[in-house]
Each structure stands twice: as C-alpha cells, then as structure tokens.
Specification:
- By secondary structure, the chain is of the alpha+beta class.
- The chain folds into three domains: 224 residues, Arp2/3 complex 21 kDa subunit ARPC3, CATH 1.10.1760; 139 residues, GAF domain (Beta-Lactamase), CATH 3.30.450; 158 residues, Alpha-Beta Plaits (2-Layer Sandwich), CATH 3.30.70.
- The protein contains 17 helices and 15 strands.
- The strands form four sheets. It has a six-stranded antiparallel β-sheet with strand order 5-4-3-8-7-6, with helices on both faces. A five-stranded mixed β-sheet has the order 10-11-9-14-15, sandwiched between helices.
- A hairpin with a 2-residue loop joins strand 4 and strand 5.
- Helix 8 packs antiparallel against helix 9, helix 14 crosses helix 15 and helix 15 packs across helix 16.
- The longest helix has 42 residues.
- The relative contact order is 0.06.
Length: 569
C-alpha cells in the first residue's frame, strides 16, 4: 500500500504537536514515583527492550509480549514512566522489524502516536476511576479490578486506533487473525503482569529474573522453532523448483523457471544470471521489478564487480547495506539497491556462472538463504547441463550432420503435421519444392567426394538464406533437397523455386578440397519440381510423389536447370 506524502507529513506533525505536550502534562499532573529507584527503573527498561526485541513468531505473525511489563511498570512507577517505556518499546520493535527505508520512516511517528494515545487515555481512565500509584493488590480486590480495567481499556483503545489507522491510512479491514491473536495475547499477559508487580514488591529485582527469564526463554524457543520451520519450508520449495527445472528440456525454459521462482521466493527487486564464457562474465538473463529486461550489462572480467568477486573467491557473498558492497560495485547494480546476495553456480568443481540478487531494502536477506540458493544453483547447473545435452541429442537426431539442415525423418513428421493443419482448414495451401543437383556424380568423379560435400554445404546455405522463415528446408537424401512452405500458393512456391535455381546457376561454386589440391570454380545447376496441396494431393505422401514426378518428368527430362510444376494432365 502506497501512502501519500501529505499523509506522512501529517503523521509527523501530529506527533510533534501531541506527544511532547502530552508528556509535559502527564509529568506535572501525575508525577512518577521513582525517588531512589533509578536502578530498578533502568532494569525494567532493559527488560522492556529485550522483550520488545524478541517477539514470538507463530505462523509468520509477530507477537510482541510487552503488555505484561508495561502493566507492572504502570502500577509501580506511574503513567509517565510507562509512556516513556512504551515509546522506547516502539522504537525497538520497528528496529527489530528492520524499518530503515526512507519511505517507511513515517511508521515511527505513526506507532509512537498510537502507543502514546493508548497509554495516555487508559492511564487517565485508571486514575479518574480512583486508581492509585503503587497499589496493594494482595487481598485488595478493588485494586485488582481497577488494574484489570486499565488493561481492558488499554486493549480496547488500541483496537479502536489500529482499526482506524488500517481503514483510513492502509484502506484495509482489521478484524481478522491479527485481532484474534491480540485478544489472546492480552488475556495471557495480564496475569503475568500482575504476578510480576506483586513479586517485585516482595523480592525486588529478582522478580525480573523469575518472571522475565521464562518468558524470554519461551520467546527464544519459539523463534528457534520458527527459524527451523522457515528453513524447512525453503528447502521444500527448493526441492520443488529443482523438480520443475529437471522436467524442462529446453535451456531457456530452465533459466526462466530458475529466475522466476527465486524472485517469488525471496525479496528480489533485481536479479541477474551471468555465464562464464571465454574466461569472461556475460549476462545470461536479467529481471528488474519482476519483469525480464534487455541485456544491457557489458562483459565483465574476473575480479571485476561483485560477480567477479564471487567468481574469483568461489564463494557466496551477502551484503546487508550499500556501504558494505559499494567498494566492489562497477556500475551495473541500480543505485537504489541496498541488500545484495550473490552465489556462484558450479558444475564439476568449476564456476560456470554467477547469480546476483538485489533488494532495495536493507538487511533483506538472511544467512540461511545462502544455503538455500547454493542448493538451487546446484539444481540449476545440473538441469541446464541436462537440457543442453538433450538439445544436442535432439539436433543430432533431427539434423543432417553435413549440411546442418533437417533430415528426412524430421521433415516427414513435420509434413504430416502440416497436412493435418491443412485438413482442418488451419492452412489454405501447403506447397512442397523438391530439387536435385544436376550431374552431381560427375562432380564427385572429377573433383572427389570432399569437393562434392563442399557443394552440398554451400547449396544448403544458399537455399536456407533464400527460404528464411517462410518454410522448412531439409536434406531429402544424397544430392536432393526438399522445402515445405505452409500457406504458400503454387505461384509463390514456383517463384521461390525459380529464385533458388538462379541463385545456384548464376554463381559458381568454389572448391577448396579437389583431388589435385588446387582451387576450382565449378558451375552447378539444379532441377526443381513443385507441387501444392490440396489441388495436387490429398495426403502427404502424394504431395512428395507428385513433386518428385514434376522434378524428373517436367525438369530432368526437359533438359535440367529448370523448375516444373506438377500437372495431373
């Protein structure tokens, strides 16, 4: 939720106008009962700060158990001291939550205002109803009920103010899980506060040990449990991401899954994957604010920048603030970045890439997240290698090793698929061009098979450049090539075939590996047959057969070096 600048200024202004004046009024109207108990006051302040800094975390909710200390402080030392402690607790809480960003600083006066109003109104209510400072609670049911009324008014006023803040500032509803937790929290902490107050009157500062240590220990236990739970959740997510990457057989898909899932799992504003290639770091993928962006980062050397530092040291680095990483930056990290997490991507004990994550927030990343990312980077390295191996194998199974064109097996399957599209009226035409190099055997006999291979490679390249993305070129076998043109009419297919014929006939081929070791210029011609479905064929095999008939009957027998269309007549 974005808060308007005018609202933030108003929040600061309210604090300046209300809080200092309220403290002055409280101090003179209800002076604190401290006398010579400054050490005790400081001990309570220390306990308040420690409890505020160690919230209990349950189901990703932060529960701050400061009410019991505040109740004991209020009853013993008065409203003024409790208000001071409440302000200190707010600051400690927000620091614990890492509220450092400039656009979030308004949360300090916002919460300080709220805690001040809650303390002030509930405290004044207590005194107006006859409550006393440092009351005797043992056997005095009236004082106990007034203390309970103070806690209840504190709770009710807090809920009212929070609901108002959420409605007018954040445009959210309050009554939900947070409301329920806060209610339970108040019910639980009230008896603890009463016991602390009574025990303090009996044994002094030892009461802080007797009550404070168990509560703080409980908070530590819950936090340790929550931390282990978070690690387990991240490990589970990492395993799921690893499985998803392993299922991808395309390198680009693996990279996309990897960077997207990491950006969803961690607080990431900027993400970069760099690849070690030719002893340099080249950008492989980049995401900014959740969107893929163009590759604009220059090539980096080893030891250069944060990624170069990670590469050279072969270990991950975590920077929590700009001051920590600024000396290593080389310009590609956005200027509004604060936290950076960078991990090497290794395979076979060798760094093959670098992952760099950046956030605008200070202290955005935890140390345990390094371990999670190292596991993910291992999954990523294996998944990319498997995908590359699959792509190489797929290319080898689909391509002609000599010309790098598709082979006949791939072409036949593609033609059947395209014919299905034609039959379902997804295509209007499906044209096929079949061409054969004229007198190719004499070239092999005269200059050798290596020279024949040179002609096949060069002819394949000329055909591929002319066809472009209009269709698919394949080596049909021997010195024959075939071209499939979806949605191309017979006229346009014929024109393309004529362009191919001229491109080969009008430009001699240069042979570098002839039998006599000398370079030769050889003129080559081709004969071409063209057929188009549905007018020339009703199935895929018939389309090939009719293009082949046009090639041999209409072109070869007519003198070669020409294009012929299939005709049923």
């Amino acid at each position: 939720m974005v808060i308007e600048p005018q609202v933030k200024k108003a929040i600061f202004l309210v604090w300046i106008l209300i809080v200092p004046a309220g403290f002055w009024f409280t101090y003179h109207s209800y002076p604190p009962q401290i006398s010579d108990n400054w050490i005790d006051v400081l001990a309570f302040l220390l306990l308040t700060s420690v409890v505020a800094a160690m919230p209990i975390v349950i189901n990703k909710m932060f529960i701050f158990l400061t009410q019991w200390v505040a109740l004991a402080v209020f009853l013993k030392f008065g409203l003024f001291v409790e208000m001071v402690f409440a302000q200190v607790a707010v600051i400690v809480l927000l620091l614990r939550l890492r509220v450092y960003q400039k656009d979030q600083l308004f949360r300090y006066p916002l919460n300080l205002n709220m805690f001040f109003i809650v303390s002030f109104i509930s405290g004044i209510t207590y005194y107006v109803l006859g409550g006393e400072m440092a009351p005797e609670l043992i056997g005095n049911y009236r004082s106990i009920w007034l203390a309970a009324l103070y806690a209840l008014s504190n709770y009710v006023i807090n809920q009212i103010i929070v609901s108002i803040h959420l409605h007018f500032i954040y445009k959210e509803r309050y009554f939900g899980k947070d409301f329920f937790v806060e209610t339970i929290n108040t019910v639980i902490t009230f008896p603890i506060g009463i016991v602390l107050y009574i025990l303090y009157n009996q044994v002094g500062l030892l009461s802080l040990v007797f009550i404070g240590v168990p509560v703080i220990s409980l908070s530590i236990v819950f936090n340790l449990y929550y931390s282990s739970q978070k690690v387990n959740e991240y490990l589970q997510k990492a395993a799921e991401i690893g499985h998803q990457m392993a299922e991808r057989l395309n390198v680009d898909d693996v990279i996309t899954i990897f960077i997207q899932k990491i950006c969803e799992m961690l607080p990431v504003d900027y993400a970069y994957i760099l690849e070690v290639k030719d002893d340099k770091l080249k950008l492989l993928r980049q995401m900014e604010m959740g969107d893929a962006t163009s590759n604009e980062i220059r090539v980096l050397q080893k030891y250069e920048g944060i990624s170069g530092l990670v590469w050279s040291n072969r270990k991950a680095f975590l920077f929590s603030t700009r001051k920590e990483w600024q000396q290593y930056a080389n310009g590609y990290i956005p200027i509004d970045t604060e936290s950076i997490l960078s991990v090497p991507i290794e395979r076979s004990n060798k760094v093959i890439g670098i992952l760099v994550l950046a956030s605008k927030q200070k202290h955005a990343y935890e140390k345990y997240q390094l371990m999670i990312l190292e596991i993910l980077c291992s999954y990523f390295a294996v998944a990319t290698e498997n995908a590359r191996h699959y792509e190489r194998t797929k290319i080898q199974s689909e391509r002609c090793a000599l010309t790098k064109l598709y082979n006949y097996r791939y072409f036949e399957n593609l033609m059947i698929q395209e014919f299905e599209h034609l039959m379902h009226f997804d295509l209007h035409h499906l044209s096929l061009i079949l061409l054969d190099i004229d007198h190719f055997k004499s070239v092999n006999d005269t200059y050798g098979h290596q020279s024949g291979n040179e002609i096949l490679i060069e002819a394949a390249e000329r055909i591929r450049q002319l066809v472009g993305d209009r269709g698919t070129v394949a080596r049909y076998g021997g010195e024959e090539f075939v071209i499939l043109l979806p949605n191309a009419s017979k006229e346009s297919a014929y024109q393309l075939a004529e362009q191919i014929r001229q491109a080969i006939a009008d430009h001699p081929f240069t042979l570098h590996q002839s039998l006599d070791g000398r370079q030769h210029q050889v003129e080559i011609t081709v004969s071409i047959g063209v057929a188009t479905a549905p007018q020339d064929a009703e199935d895929a095999l018939a389309l090939i057969r009719h293009a082949d008939r046009a090639l041999y009957v209409g072109a070869k027998r007519a003198g070669r070096n020409r294009v012929a269309e299939y005709s049923s007549c």
